[in-house]
Please model this.
Amino acid sequence: MVPAMTGIHPSDADFSGSQLVCVRGGRVVFAGLSFALAAGDALVLLGPNGSGKSSLLRLMAGLLKPFSGTLAWRRRAVSDDPEAHAARSHYVGHHDAIKPVLSVAENVAFWARLHEPRGDAAGQRVAGALERFSLAHLSALPGKMLSAGQRRRANLARLLAAPSPLWLLDEPTTALDRGSIRVLEGVLAEHRAQGGMVALSTHADIDLPGAREIHLDRFAPSAELAEMFL
Amino acid sequence: MSRFGEIVRRDLRLALRQGSDSVMVVTFFVLTVVLFPFGIGPEANILARVAPGVLWVTALLASMLSLDRLFQADYEDGSLELLVLTPTPLEVVVAAKVVAHWLTTGLPLLAAAPVLAVLLNLDAAGFKILLLTMLVGTPILSLVGAVGAALVLGARRGGVLLSLLILPLYVPVLIFGVGAIDATLQGLEPRAHLLILGGMLAGALALAPWAAAAALRQALE
Model:
């Protein structure tokens, strides 16, 4: 097995996974994968299509259960308290979760309030998040009028509208123009400077200084392990 | 505001802006009931005799019409993933969505029922009990329907599958709903029927959110 491929020891990490095995539709996607993230860290998931980048992010978010292996937050298993894990993480998937009949501001504000119902400055934070992703002038527009890139930016605005330390981004640059990718890079850098953590998968070039990489194709199961599940 | 309230408010707002679901359900209810006098003939006695059954069966079908959209829209646009990842038990999310579903479909049915009862020449003694049985019965339809809607998520032709799955489960509600009205019309005490309906509502309230939440988790795996 490949050892944990990070510099820090898992016990010092805020968020870590050890010996994760992911099985989808009776097929082993990856096996023996370990990672560790401490405050300010970024993790980039690389690998060809179907190598399990999205599966790993869904596993980290709690949408999937690992076939074996554990995920831990500050040494406590994530599965012990899934709601606490949901409260400290933001997941951005392939779909943008923008309702066509709600305005951009209503869409973002709903998710922000759902994430943090007692957020005092929630309204201000939503406005700030829209401003940051250059959506302020579109905030009253219904979701159905947005382009794919604008929808993606509205989805990303959720990250700033309700703060959470762990961001799990599945190809966040999809449909974004170059300027918006620069904005996203700035947002990610600030988040890390404040002690936040980021795990993201990408096919595009995105500037994440000091980010560690996981090449998922290296965790593809060996032939005999794959056979065990047949 | 609590997360429960947020979800109810958002679903009500969506229903209000889209408008189609509630209107469609009530229109279906009205049109189908109106078909019966044409099919059976306008004789008042016969209509009065079949009125409780016709109203309940039609209400049941109407409420089922909107069920396949209950989770489907959220499933398709990715909202369901985020709802599952809300820092609150998924059962609460499901309960909130069911409440919103009842407010946008069950309640309009309840409002339309007395008008249609007049059309079918239902005896005046049956009006109060008709509303009462529907008040207790339609939430059961939404609750049980939510389990079915969650189970067929992602299936092709989910709407058809849903009716095959859910209609048999609606039969007890139909029996005791109509039974209570018939008992009243014959001058008997409808209490026993109502208590059983109430028991079914209590059971559905306790069990349906869990079952639907489990089905949703399965659908997102």
About this structure: Chain B has a mean pLDDT of 93.
